[in-house]
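Hi V.,

You were right to ask for the full record rather than a summary. Here it is.
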Amino acid sequence: MTHTQLEAALSSAERRHATLIERIRYQGSGVTLQEISLASDAVLQAQRMLAAARNEEHAVPFDIGFVPEAAAPSPSLLQSESAAALVFGAMEILPDGIRKPVGCATVELELCSVTKFGYPNDEALSGHPLSGKGLEAYGIFEVINSSWLEALANQNRVSFPNTPRSSQRHFILTFHDSTFECVARSLRGTVTDEPAVESCARVFSRLFGTGSL
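Predicted structure:
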């Protein structure tokens, strides 16, 4: 598809989504959660396709079997110079768009070299540079064509001019009250039914060499 066709497809998806939202707002019925979810997914997919065609950075879902809880995931970051992990309340997304709690998640960041954690929250996520390019709240994403990876390489080239673009990857996790970003080789996640404080203690033991995940 041409850029013009992709732009038209995005506009059509946005109109469809807006129409459904208006129907809920003014009619209060006649629209299912699954319809809203599918319309939102169509907008995000159209955003990603257009950004990819333009060779721009964009966010795509990174599936590890769960996503952050929408209401109060209470994420905790545990990090040393050589390892990092997140612990938070998790949910799975069912086919009809409903999110089901699955327990306390641990996401280990393999060969993590840098992290950012804090602003923006879900209400300010529209101000994030990747808003409108596939990023949404309460999800886990990989950034394609990441400008952050290029910036890190350029920073290293000050002392090491032949530094290649990093083979690591840029990931984003969007929470209710915060956003987490990192550069790492990959993510791997597990879910348990143990309290968050126990998961944090176990991860702390792993990071500082007194146990294992």
